Amino acid sequence: MADPLVRVGGVDVWVAGERERLLGEWVDTGRVVRGVSLPVLFAEQVARTPGAVAVECEGVGLSYAELDARSNRLARWLVARGVGPERFVVVMLPRSVDLVVALLAVVKAGGAYVPVDPEYPSERIEFILGDADPVLVIDDVSVFAEAEEFSGDPLTDVDRVSVLGLRHPVYVIYTSGSTGLPKGVVVEHASVGAYLERAREVYGDASGTALLHSSVAFDLTVTALYTPLVSGGRVVLAELDERAAVSGSPTLMKVTPSHVGLLEALPGEVSPSGTLITGGEALTGEALEGWRAAHPDVTVVNAYGPTEATVNCTDFRIVPGEPVAGGAVPIGRPFWNTRAYVLDAWLRPVPVGVAGELYVAGAVLARGYWARGGLTAERFVADPFGPAGARMYRTGDVARWNADGQLVYVGRVDDQVKVRGFRIELGEIQSVLASHPRVARAAMLVREDRPGDKRLIGYLVPTPGGGVRSAELRDHVAARLPDYMVPSAFVVLDELPLTVNGKLDRRALPAPDYGPESVGRTPRSPREEILCDLFAEVLGVPAVSIDDDFFQLGGHSLLATRLVGRIRTVLDAELPIRQLFETPTVAGISAALEG
Question: Rounded to the nearest 5 degrees, what angle is found at the Cα of 271, between the Cα atoms of 267 and 274?
Answer without folding.
Answer: 145
